[in-house]
Amino acid sequence: MSHEPFAHQIYYMILTDIAISMAVRTLLPEHTLAAEGVDYQPGAYHQAWAAAEIDKLQRHKVTALANAGLGALAKMEPQPLKDQAERFGVPLELETAQAMFDYYTNKRDAVLTYKR
Question: Which of 12, 67, 81, 110 is the most exposed place for a label (fewest CB within 10 A)?
Answer without folding.
Answer: 110
